[in-house]
Design goal:
By secondary structure, this protein is an alpha+beta fold. The chain has helices at residues 2-27, 37-61, 67-130, 132-140, 145-218, 222-245, 284-287, 289-300, 308-312, 344-349; strands at 257-258, 263-264, 329-332, 335-341, 354-358, 364-372, 375-379, 389-390, 400-407. It has ten helices and nine strands. The relative contact order is 0.08.
Length: 408
């Protein structure tokens, strides 16, 4: 009698559990989310426009430099940034929708996994209670062949069900882990796109400001534009002449010296020497003497955190018509300064440094920190260990072309 009860209980549990598992597992089949077709089309159209504008900008940059051609380049760069911003926003919206879908799917999978786990635990308990040997005894104790096969088929169904239950539970765990991984990766991508959007927005603002500065600096006049452009080209060509005369601009290390006056920097220092000069083909090591000289003066004025990289990182410090040419007026660490023509001795006697340009370009710039009557001590940004050295040990006074004080 007890054997019959256990067998009956076993068969009922097997049937109920099989039904429950099918019900639970059926809920886990959720289609993978895909972006809406209209968003895909919009994204493709934006990318096509971006590719078209990139080619147009490249073609325009290869043309002869005129004010109108540079304005055209700037206009297209502005449009390019606007399209990049729109494209990034579209991608962010699509990702946000995918994340929301993945989040909901994770919730369903968590519920299903919990249900499957409970069913599996109950099945293990039921199997333990019935017992494998008693199940065999139940088959042996069958009254007739019909009863034997009935019991045998139920036990076979229970075994198949157990295998499927284990598989379904494992599959649910894998689906859950995969969705969690997709969810986390998409969240990281969203953060990356947000940073990209911020960078594009900053770039767009700078490009608009650059166009405004170009129109202001040239007064919309082609002759003025060409004069300023030639002046900038002459200075950069002068830097190249100077570096060639010195045997090249090899990278140095351990050059920075800070004292009561301020800090001495060398343009060839490994901390920044290989850095591009405002994103151009020039480098600080070969063409950054003026940037480095201004950084030294800033430290003398109390802004000790300013380095050549500080000035170089602000594109507004450079001419809109020639990005490697440092403007007379620049900003760093919250302070705006201007280079103004002056005399040497009057400034040095008042304890104020002057920046002098040497050669035709001028070809090189140094900072005079003290002295009078032609006997000057300088900080030379190119010479190795050029801190507090005699000017006339390296250059002739007659080669001084420009003398500028720093107004702030």
């Amino acid at each position: 009698m007890i054997l019959v009860k256990k067998t009956f209980l076993f068969l009922i549990l097997a049937t109920i559990l099989l039904f429950c598992t099918k019900s639970i597992w059926a809920q886990t089949v959720t289609p993978t989310p895909t972006p809406a077709q209209d968003k895909l089309q919009q994204s493709k159209e934006l990318q096509d426009k971006i590719n078209e504008l990139q080619k147009k900008v490249s073609d325009l940059q290869g043309q002869t430099k005129t004010l109108s051609s540079q304005i055209a380049v700037m206009d297209n760069q502005i449009k390019l940034s606007e399209y990049r911003i729109d494209s990034t926003k579209t991608e962010l919206l699509s990702l946000s929708a995918d994340i929301d879908t993945a989040d909901k799917k994770i919730g369903v999978l968590e519920k299903n996994l919990s249900g499957l786990t409970k069913v599996l635990i109950n099945r293990i308990v039921a199997t333990y209670e019935v017992g494998g040997t008693q199940s065999f005894e139940a088959l042996v104790a069958s009254n007739n062949i019909s009863n034997f096969f009935t019991r045998f088929n139920y036990l076979k169904i229970a075994q198949i069900h157990d295998k499927k239950l284990i598989y379904d539970t494992q599959q649910a765990k894998m689906d859950y882990a995969n969705q969690k991984n997709i969810f986390e990766n998409e969240k990281k991508k969203v953060e990356s796109l947000k940073k990209q959007l911020e960078d594009y927005t900053i770039q767009l603002d700078r490009e608009k400001q650059g166009k405004q500065r170009l129109l202001a600096e040239t007064q919309g006049n082609e002759t003025t534009y060409q004069r300023l452009l030639n002046q900038a080209k002459a200075q950069l060509a002068g830097f190249s002449r100077f570096v060639t005369s010195q045997g090249g601009a090899s990278i140095l290390s351990g050059q920075t010296v800070c004292d009561d006056w301020g800090c001495y920097y060398n343009q060839r220092d490994s901390q920044w020497g290989n850095s591009s000069l405002n994103g151009t083909q020039y480098t600080l090591a070969s063409d950054g003497c003026l940037v480095t000289s201004m950084a030294m003066v800033y430290t003398h004025l109390g802004h000790r955190d300013v380095t050549p990289l500080t000035i170089n990182s602000n594109s507004s410090n450079f001419a809109s018509y020639y990005p490697a040419y440092l403007n007379k007026t620049i900003s760093a660490d919250g302070m705006t300064t201007s280079r103004i023509s002056s005399s040497i001795d009057g400034e040095l006697s008042a304890g104020r440094p002057v920046i002098v340009g040497i050669g035709l370009g001028p070809d090189h710039f140094v900072v005079l920190v003290s002295g009078s009557g032609g006997n000057y001590i300088m900080n030379d940004p190119f010479v190795s260990n050029g801190h507090n050295i005699n000017f006339t040990d390296h250059y002739s006074l007659s080669n001084i072309k420009t003398i500028e004080k720093i107004s702030y």
